[in-house]
Amino acid sequence: MSAPSLGSTGTGRRAPALAHADGRLLRDGRPHRVLAGSLHYFRVHPEQWGDRLRRLSALGLNTVDTYVPWNFHERAPKDPRFDGWRDLTRFIRLAGDTGLDVIVRPGPYICAEWDNGGLPAWLTGVPGMRLRTCYPPFLEAVGHWFDKLIPRVADLQFSRGGPVVAVQIENEYGSHGDDLAYVHWVRDALVDRGITELLYTADGPTPLMLDGGTVPDELAAVTFGSRPAEAAALLRSRRPGEPFFCAEFWNGWFDHWGEKHHVRSPESAARDVGGILDAGGSVSLYMAHGGTNFGLWAGANHDGEAIQPTITSYDSDAPIAEHGALTPKFFTLRKKLTAFGGAPERPVPAAPALLEPRTLPVRWEAALRDALRAMSTPVRAPLPLSFEELGQSSGLVLYAAEPLLPSGTHELTVTGLHDRAQVFVDGALVAVLDRETSSCTVAGSGRRIRLELLVENQGRINYGPLLGQGKGILGGVRVERRLVHGWTMRGLPLDEWTPEDVARATSSARPGGAAGFATARLTVRRPADTFIALPGFAKGFVWVNGILLGRYWEVGPQTTLYLPGPFLRSGENTLTVLELERFGHHIVLHDRPDLGPSEEYVETFD
Fold first, then answer.
1. What is the pLDDT at residue 393?
2. Residue 144, class by beta-carbon neighbours within 10 Å (0-12 exposed, 13-18 middle, 19+ buried)?
3. Which DSSP category does 174 fall into?
4. Which of 26, 299, 322, 435 is 20 to 30 A from 293 in CA distance terms?
5. What is the pLDDT of residues 60-104, one digit of tens each?
């Protein structure tokens, strides 16, 4: 019998790709640096995966990392999907074909500014559910999901001939809790389902976070956006025999509606990347390419006072822009990375093709509430039902009741409003409420009024102690001290509508009022990328050929929505708008993005 080849285990499989000893990361026994970048397949159109991976490789990186959002794959319980946009196997293989190693971050919680941190709403909405703990019903649900997911990842490991070289255990758990038995359970769940490559945890660079999230005998990595020397010193004081690995270096930052567009200078980002590399460390750029929160997948944060919904763009001021353009940050970081990588520079891909700018007239199609009523089957209950009770994750719910109001002015209060409600009385808009301003005055005349509340889920919280909160009206609606009973709910899961549903919505009612459905026609000879602006419109949603592109909102910062060429077809295309407040008269297509007024932002852990 011949001796096994170098790197073989002697069992027909190769040894794991990565190991570490004496504070150094090794590959096949030789010193190695992971030079990685985050690129999320779920934020990039599948027809553009290959292009974005080539751009990431040209940045000077040798590895791509991606989260796996559970709710993206399993929208309904016990019905996980891995086809089309959810074909994780295809994405990983494309990365390998591009010459990149792959790091997989399967959660089950991912944060990522993604709706609900990647956890399915059908799970977090279960009464009494205890998330990210050893609570048996939670572990049972994670186990079923991992049964479907992890063997697919295991089959693509380096030891089996694939490009997967490492798998993360949970995600920044030390920022959430200290149920260390749960983190160990996740580690064991990965191993039991076939993971043999390098396992690691990733947490913020503070003693509190490392205490809560790390696992003995598994590599401890850190996530940060500044002061790499301090992070390296802390990690090495706790794990003196381990290599320094920054699992997320925040070279940019995400944006919330109503705030400024966050940027970070190329020089600032390159300086701290250099600090990581000078300390002998490995690094993953978060994000190398941000992509887009298509549909209604954008999450939200909460600052302790108000909800902060994340915008549709996830450009994140990354070196590879949302539409694939190579930014000044790309070339500054490329110079730094290639100097340390030791590999020849790869050719720089050409700029993405763009449509010529143009203006499209808009046709107003269907009045807002008439159309929404026609698009949903009513559900009746004594008190308002939440999204979860209606079996709905995202979108809108139209609540209606007919309370008797005495003559005079009365205070109307919505308890537990999550997140935003337009209040209509007898068809007239009287107020717009949010979580913080959840009351208004209504006039009575001694008769019953038709009270309607159009409630929008603005994105489920993805980080912090409010993770998993419900949506809709979670308490009740009062007129003064008296509860309003006898409600009709119409669920409108906009992101689940088919192209046929979208087409039906535009013809479901007659035009009327200042808001509702509108359409525009776009004829192209050859599809290419473009950027949609909606001047004069206030707030709403855009579909392209019946596929939900995302939200827009005049509060900014972004004023254009990225429309990838693969959404279009040669010939005529239909843009459909659901405007909640105020129609504009035309749609403008631009050849560059406008993400709004910017401000420099560098995250620290002060």
1. 98
2. middle
3. G
4. 435
5. 999 999 999 999 999 999 999 999 999 999 999 999 999 999 999
Task: State how far Cα 184 lies from the chain centre.
Answer: 26
Could you give the CA distance from residue 556 to residue 257 in angstroms, rounded to a whole number? Answer: 6
The pLDDT value given to residue 342: 64
C-alpha span between 261 and 289 (Å, rounded): 16
How confident is the model over 573-584, as pLDDT tens digits? 999 999 999 999
Q: What tokens appear for 340 in the block?
A: 């340390």
CA distances from 51 to 37, 59, 69, 193, 330 (A): 15, 13, 22, 32, 15
- Structure pTM? 0.96
Residue 3: pLDDT band (50, 70, 90) is very low
Sheet with 18-21, edge to edge strand ranges: 18-21, 24-27, 30-31
pLDDT at 147 over 60: yes
pLDDT tens for each residue of 499-535: 999 999 999 999 999 999 999 999 999 999 999 999 9
| Coil, strand or helix at 166 | strand
Say if residues 550 and 294 touch (Cβ distance below 8 Å): yes
CB-based burial of residue 145 (10 Å sphere; 0-12 exposed, 13-18 middle, 19+ buried)? buried
> Which residues are known catalytic residues?
172, 248
Residues in CB range of 247: below 8 A, 6 or more apart: 65, 168, 200, 202, 221, 222, 223, 284
Q: What share of the chain is helix, strand, coil (3-state, %, to 5)?
A: 25, 30, 45
Distance from C-alpha of 149 to C-alpha of 66, rounded to nearest angstrom: 14
State both tokens at 356.
């010529």
What phi and psi values does residue 479 have, to the nearest 5 degrees?
A: -105, 110
Given a contact cutoff of 8 angstroms between Cβ atoms, the answer to whether 599 and 358 are in contact is no
